[in-house]
Specification:
Layout: E1 3-11, H1 15-26, E2 31-35, E3 48-49, H2 51-59, H3 63-68, E4 77-81, E5 88-93, E6 109-110, H4 113-122, E7 127-130, E8 132-139, E9 144-150, E10 156-166, H5 173-178, E11 182-197, H6 201-204, E12 211-214, E13 217-223, E14 226-233, H7 243-250, E15 260-274, E16 278-279, E17 282-284, E18 290-291, H8 299-319, H9 328-365, H10 385-389, E19 429-431, E20 434-435, E21 444-448, H11 451-454, E22 464-468, H12 471-474, E23 484-487, E24 493-497, H13 506-514
Parallel strand pairs: 1-2, 1-10, 2-7, 4-12, 10-17, 21-22
Antiparallel strand pairs: 3-6, 4-5, 8-9, 9-10, 11-14, 11-15, 12-13, 13-14, 15-18, 16-17, 19-20, 21-23, 23-24
Helix pairs in contact: 1-4, 1-8, 8-9
């Protein structure tokens, strides 16, 4: 059997694994990505790249390409109807997608996963092996040996990696091999997605949306040039179902539209969080670490945030300016986010299914249209800025000003930007078309109104850039003229000095503490 060596083995070629490959390559970390399927997914799957993910892709230089392949902002909305050809009885914007928000330099997009993945694949040169499956893991003192099998030839190979990043989905082989259990509701039901062709412009062109929720399933436009998907609970007689006929009936009486079903995918909606995100040198990310229901479009985006948090830490350990203990902060910071996200999406999923079921019963009984809806849940359906932009990390990789403050996030709706340690650095314009969000990269960033005062302090061996913060922003960040913010590579504030540092080693001590030195 052949033997290969690599710094990081990435298992799983979905958006999360592909994003990790790009991030690690930017850090100069050699990777190998293996994906058990023979090609990228042909199914649309995830439908939303939210504003925080687009900030990450903006920094990687990918936002323009992703946006060019996506729907326009007018599709950043959900609509609720009895049938697709009926009127809206409720509608809700996808905040940060339907229009720019002042809290970010980026704007999210509605796009299909099969449009996103090719962009991510092309954004890095590191080796990718399709049709190769993980079948075994052996942890050793200095690394991990992974046993892989080529699903076509049956040939087995061993790859030795310093670390393994497992982003291999809700049914993660890596998680199962490690015996890591999960907690949460578990399976929430079986669903079917039908990709189909039909001329539905007469009901959608003037009232565009990313998703139309109806009493008979949900409809979503797939690509700007055409194509649709319908998804609903899997019928009991799925094996004998005429899918074109079923989707045609789901459009509602009187639609009179020819439907041509192209592809059908049955899938399970899972809802859980892994009990651990780290097992020695093996780390779980994305659906392998947390399966988030599709309601609200948070699943893939939570995974992208996972690897954005993790990859700079892996790079630091591999390049020698961070101790392995820094990797403990990955689970400490990201697992609470996964739990909060799961709670919100599970609640919204139950409400969605309840509203659809209740409306089907009302339509069947001939109940008046005025009784259509119960709770006004659509008003908060995509109001997620607090959860997406307002996350607060509490770990050894943050020098908190008040360790007793319990402030994990702004919650699922409201978001108030703040420069407190642990929070995402607020978006403030440093120059035309350049935000504080853009100042972060493969380095730590020190933002201060008086850079010359801080440039005298040594930062070696940590990668650091010192940049001027315009005076008009200093007060908003809680800084006096000689104060400073130390921002981690993932854009979260690691430390804040409200005024001049207490001594000439303050910066060095902070960097050492943030990297578990």
């Amino acid at each position: 059997m052949a033997n290969d060596e690599v710094a990081v083995l990435i298992v799983g070629g979905g958006p999360v694994g592909l994003t990790a490959r790009v991030l690690l390559e930017r850090w100069g970390v050699p990777t190998l990505l293996v994906e058990k399927h023979r090609r990228l997914s042909p199914f649309p799957r995830s439908r939303l790249v939210n504003v925080r993910s687009m900030e990450i892709y903006r920094r990687l230089g990918l936002a323009d390409t992703i946006t060019a392949n996506a729907f326009g902002p007018e599709y950043g909305r959900v609509r609720f109807r009895d049938t697709l050809h009926g009127p809206d009885f409720a509608t809700a914007p996808m905040l940060g997608v339907n229009a720019p928000v002042p809290e970010s330099p980026a704007i999210g997009v509605v796009t299909s996963q099969d449009r996103l993945e090719p962009t991510l694949l092309a954004a890095a040169d590191a080796q990718v092996r399709f049709g190769v499956e993980l079948i075994g893991l052996t942890e050793e003192a200095e690394g991990v040996t992974a046993l892989l099998v080529d699903r076509r030839s049956g040939e087995e190979t061993r790859v030795r990696a310093r670390h393994v990043l497992a982003a291999d989905g809700a049914n993660s082989t890596a998680r199962q091999l490690l015996g890591i259990d999960t907690d949460g509701p578990g399976v929430m039901g079986g669903f079917t997605t039908v990709v189909f062709e039909a001329d539905l412009d007469r009901w959608s062109a003037r009232q565009p949306a990313g998703v139309y929720f109806t009493a008979h399933g949900s409809f979503a436009p797939l690509y700007p040039e055409g194509g649709w998907a319908w998804f609903a609970p899997t019928p009991e007689d799925a094996a004998r179902t005429d899918w074109s006929e079923l989707v045609s009936r789901a459009l509602g009486p009187g639609a009179d539209v020819r439907v041509n079903a192209l592809r059908v995918q049955h899938w399970v909606m899972n809802a859980f969080v892994a009990e651990r995100f780290r097992h020695g040198r093996i780390l779980l990310a994305g659906d392998a670490a947390h399966a988030i229901p599709i309601t609200g479009g948070l699943g893939m985006n939570t995974g992208v945030a996972d690897v954005h948090n993790l990859c700079w830490k892996l790079a630091g350990v591999l390049h020698g300016w961070a101790e392995p203990g820094l990797l403990d902060s990955y689970e400490t910071e990201r697992r609470p986010v996964a739990h909060r996200t799961l709670r919100q999406t599970v609640a919204d999923t139950h409400l969605m299914l309840e509203v659809q079921s209740r409306r089907r019963e009302q339509l069947h009984s001939g109940e008046a249209a005025s009784a259509r809806t119960g709770p006004p849940w659509s008003e908060r359906y995509f109001a997620q800025l607090g959860l997406v932009l307002g996350v607060t990390y509490r770990s050894g990789a943050v020098l908190a000003e008040d360790p007793d403050t319990d402030m994990d996030s702004d919650g699922g709706t409201g978001y108030v930007p703040t420069a407190e340690p642990g929070r995402r650095m607020p978006h403030l314009w440093l120059a035309r078309d350049r935000s504080t969000v853009d100042a972060c990269g493969e380095w730590f960033t020190l933002l201060t109104p008086r850079p010359t005062h801080w440039e005298q302090q040594s930062a070696a061996p940590w990668p650091l850039r010192i940049e001027a913060l315009p005076d008009e922003h200093a007060d908003r960040c809680g800084l006096r003229p000689h104060g400073a913010l130390l921002i981690r590579p993932d854009g979260h504030i690691g430390a804040r000095w409200r005024d001049r540092p207490p001594n000439d080693s303050a910066l060095r001590r902070a960097l050492a503490a943030l990297t578990a030195q």
